[in-house]
Amino acid sequence: MGRSAPPTPGAGSVTRYDLSLAFALNPHEEQTLTDSSPPKLGVCSWSLQPNSPEELAEKVGEIGVSAVQLHLDPLRTGDWNTQVTVEALAGVGAEVVSGMMGMEAEDYSSLESICETGGVRPDEHWEENLRAAHGNAAVAHELGVDLVSLHAGFLPHDPADPERPKLISRLHELDEAFKGEGIRLAFETGQEDAETLLAVLEELGSDNIGVNFDPANMILYAMGDPVESFERLAEHVMQVHIKDATKTETPGTWGAEVPVGTGEVDWDGFFGVMSAKGLEVGMMIEREAGDDRVGDIRIARSLVDEKMGAQA
Question: Residue 5's pLDDT is what?
Answer without folding.
Answer: 31
